[in-house]
Amino acid sequence: MDLRVLLIGDIVGKPGREVLKRTLGDFVRRREVHFVLANGENVAQGSGITPNLFKEIAREGLDVVTMGDHTWRRKEALPLLEAEERLIRPMNYPPECVGRGMGIYSTPLGVRIAVIQLLGRIFMDPVDCPFHTIDKALKNLDPSIKLILVEIHAEATSEKIAMGWKLDGRVSCVFGTHTHVPTADERVLPKGTAYITDLGMTGPYDSVIGRDKKSVLYKFETSMHAPFHVAQGDPRLCGALVTLNTQTGKATHIERVQLT
């Protein structure tokens, strides 16, 4: 039996939330999607999440919302991270941190699916090793759970690709987030793991990775500080649609998604 999972790249600010509202429901119905995951660490004015904005995007049909390096940007998110099982932050943060790095969820087909998020270390804040962290997580996971999604929220493409090869045949899908630029390397690896280096951004593409072009250019050209406001133009939903075999846990197909 096939289970179709939609993975949505970083939702950036109000433009990202609006394009999610306008496009997600129709796509889920047309493509008969069973499970939807989105990265939500940029929904609050481009950085962080709040309880109200979590509710706003979750009601559009999201089964899981993941975070990243902006997890702690807003203090009002801390109780949400503690209480909300559909909200996942990187597993390789220190164990004292609030929230959870893995969740196990039911699907309409009657099988369970595990979602694990990891944070990269290259050009990022120091955290525990994501490669050792995932080994421990998979060792302790209930072996009856065949469907496993692993998000690697990282800056360096090499780190994401290395994680894909490490987990080929061990999980159903490895997908990258954080850089806000969709990559064209989607494929099913030799041992049955779907992979893509970055899902891209759900937000305004008339921008520099979601931010106003003039402000970013001013910063680059002068080295002087400028506020990076969320841009508005050309909003798109970007991500990937993955087909998984529920008996084997292997992927059979992955395709990029871009909705305007």
Write structural notes for this entry.
The chain contains 6 helices and 14 strands. The longest helix has 19 residues, at 13-31. With 260 residues, it is of the alpha/beta class. It is globular. The strands form 2 sheets. Strands 1, 2, 3, 4, 5, 12, 13 and 14 form an 8-stranded mixed β-sheet that branches. Strands 6-7-8-9-11-10 form a 6-stranded mixed β-sheet, with helices on one face. The mean pLDDT is 96. The chain has one domain (2-259): Metallo-dependent phosphatases (Purple Acid Phosphatase, chain A, domain 2), CATH 3.60.21.10. Helices cover 25% and strands 28% of the residues. It has helices at residues 13-31, 51-58, 77-83, 130-140, 157-167, 213-222, and strands at residues 2-8, 10-11, 35-39, 64-66, 87-88, 102-106, 112-119, 147-153, 173-177, 187-188, 194-196, 201-204, 235-245, 251-259.
Sequence-ordered SSE layout with sheet pairings:
Layout: E1 2-8, E2 10-11, H1 13-31, E3 35-39, H2 51-58, E4 64-66, H3 77-83, E5 87-88, E6 102-106, E7 112-119, H4 130-140, E8 147-153, H5 157-167, E9 173-177, E10 187-188, E11 194-196, E12 201-204, H6 213-222, E13 235-245, E14 251-259
Parallel strand pairs: 1-3, 2-12, 3-4, 4-5, 7-8, 8-9, 9-11
Antiparallel strand pairs: 1-13, 6-7, 10-11, 12-13, 13-14
